[in-house]
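From the shared-data thread, chain only:
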Amino acid sequence: MKKDAEIQKNVIEELKTIPLLKANEIGVAVKNGVVTLSGTVDSYPKKIRVEKAVKKIGGVKGIAEDIAVNLSEKHQKTDSEIAQMVINAIEWHSAAQIDKINILVEDGCVTLDGTTDWDFQRKSASKVVETIVGVKRITNNIKIAQRPAPTDIKTKIQAAFVRNARIDADKINIQTDGNKVILSGKVNCWSELEEAEHSVWSTPGVSSIENKLELEDDF
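Structure, as tokens:
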């Protein structure tokens, strides 16, 4: 199993590869494989880049993120301006239906509520908002619309896992409770965990996921 000091070193080295990120902007602490990130960055996309970079590192079992976004004066927008830009971005550049989405902006923090038919639409709404100047944080509370749960939903998910070369299907347990899917077991890395979630969301009838998957220790 990788030691915390080794994980910390690898995280810091990976952060150095992010363009325009200064060495003193992000603090990195590691305890029992959980990485705590602190500090301040000047844009929300940079914050997202930091989180994605940490997920690449072997041995990382969890991330506690406490990174603040401090925008320069020229990039600051009023909440009304941000709200209008969010509406336009979702309407014209995402797969989500704007009439099913509720938007709240408070001090540059955007909260999205409402429903979509598919998970990719929910994620698409967040993705287009990430690039809007003035946004400091995004909370995506959009839910998947309820549908009748197929009787073979578990079988379809298992088949999808077996087809996917990036997922070790034998190590993942699948339970269903109506439209809800519960995943448990072990995965080798963050990318496998996210791939498993993506495969479940791509299955018709799934409206929620309880992800209990754990990262396997590195030996």
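The CA atoms of residues 162 and 170 lie 8 Å apart.
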